[in-house]
Amino acid sequence: NRLDEFQGYLHEYIQTKDSGLSQSALNRIRTQYRRSVRASRDPFKRAVYSVIGCCDTSDNHSEVAVKTDDYMWLKLSQVRQCDADGSRGSQVEDHLTLRQLQAILKDEYGEGHFHAADMPLLFFQVLLLSLQFEAALEFLSRIDRYHSHAVHFTIALHDARMLILPDSIQAPLLSKDSHDVQFFNVAQRVVRYTRKFASTDPREAVQYFYLLKGIETPQGSSLFTQCLSELVLETREFDMLLGRLEPDGSRKPGLVDKFRVNASGIIETVAADAEAKGLPEDAVRLYDLAKKHDNVLRTLNKLLSQILSAAPGGNQSTRNRLMALGINIAERYKGQGHTATLSRVSTFYLLLDLMQFFNLYHDQQFDQAIDVMQRLKLLPFRAEDVDSKVTSFRQYTDEIRHNCPDILLATMNVLYTQYRSAKSTSPASPALGRATSDGGLAEYLTVRRSQARALITFAGMLPYRMPGDTSARLVQMEALMN
């Protein structure tokens, strides 16, 4: 009895894992299909045999599968990688792999067959149901009104690890290899989407960027960190995104701390990016926030060195701003401790002291300025100190050595101004003050000339090429004092 026999096939189909029949059952049902069922006028009978025995997969059974959903169910039910014995069926029409079905739907039928322009969600559904996730997302991304949906489908599928990503985040949105395996660039899709609102709603943008934490940049770093760094430097929302430094040296958490990431490492990366992009003041504050004190002083020392000898200017001048920043850091590190190297710290404090010297110099407070310079013991003021100061000069960092010409000129100018002022003032005048108290005008002038000669000798012995005009001006001022 054919009906009883088929009932056995159906029972086996239901009970067997993955709805597969034994090879003997497959052979019998396919033989029956070819001999009689294929010619049957009953479309439902033909469809049932086709599903259970994977018979004649080229027949679309249009009388039964009148809707796209019906067609997809029918075809997906026929998909087999191989028969029970490992073969691919005795007849070509008795075999349908997933790859073959995908090619039929996407390439043979395509967008035109499914009227994708008018019914985009239908074609999107067809691609999804046939596990062509990458192609489905690329298609939906091309429909303006479904951009947002495409992004959130992307996020869901990526989170479920159901998307194949390209090796490079610079790859096209959809690409494929020589074996026709498709890749979808999740990073590109998410980053492009967030550009619309990242600058106005950085909090929301960070939530999306965090989804990219497992994707690497060409440099091998986390794409989440790179996107966050760019966002911070673009919006300058340092406190909100990364936190801020409290007076006691602790860091008040920012938005980044809500994620399972190394916040300090991310802040250090942002600092390095700021430095690379020519934002050294931002880099100093960010390194400080990350407690990378050696990097703080390395960067700040370069900045202070560049404006060391400049006139103070107004309260908002670069020099005054950097000096205030330096003093704040110096006081905090002194009270709370730091991890910077001795060389960096020594250079840092010396630069701050030299800035104080130049402040006094530009304010024409020459007595106080020369006192500061003598306390620093950077330059020789006696002939017998020249050799030791030349030796010490070799130990200073570039930030100090590069400013030596300006330091020498300013110090020589102070000596020359004091010399000229004392010489033009009556010995009995109160204006002479310090000169007379040190043993009289003659001795005071002699001391200043001897100090000037020591500076000239020191400048000539330095293992450092002085600018030509610096040497000439030093010699000129020393000569005017003789």
Could you characterize what this model shows?
The protein contains 24 helices and 4 strands. The protein is mainly alpha-helical and 482 residues long. The chain has a two-stranded antiparallel ribbon with strand order 1-2. Strands 3-4 form a two-stranded antiparallel ribbon.
Describe the structure using short key phrases:
two-stranded antiparallel ribbon; 4 strands; mainly alpha; rod-shaped; 24 helices
Largest sheet: 2 strands, antiparallel
* SSE-based structural type: mainly alpha
The coarse silhouette is: rod-shaped
Low-confidence runs (pLDDT<50, min 5 residues)? Answer: 428-433
- Order of helix and strand elements from N to C terminus: HHHHHHHHEEHHHHEEHHHHHHHHHHHH
Q: Name the average pLDDT.
A: 89
- The fraction of residues assigned to DSSP E strands is under 5%
**Amount of helix:** 55-70%
The radius of gyration computed from the alpha-carbon positions, rounded to a whole number of angstroms, is 41 Å
Distance between the termini: 133 Å
Produce the secondary structure layout.
Elements: H1 2-15, H2 23-35, H3 43-53, H4 68-78, H5 98-113, H6 120-129, H7 133-141, H8 147-159, E1 174-176, E2 182-184, H9 186-194, H10 202-210, H11 223-235, H12 238-242, E3 244-245, E4 251-252, H13 263-276, H14 280-289, H15 293-306, H16 318-336, H17 342-362, H18 366-376, H19 386-393, H20 398-401, H21 404-423, H22 434-437, H23 441-461, H24 468-480
Antiparallel strand pairs: 1-2, 3-4
Helix pairs in contact: 2-3, 3-4, 6-7, 7-8, 8-9, 10-11, 11-13, 13-14, 14-15, 15-17, 16-17, 17-18, 18-21, 19-23, 21-23, 21-24, 23-24
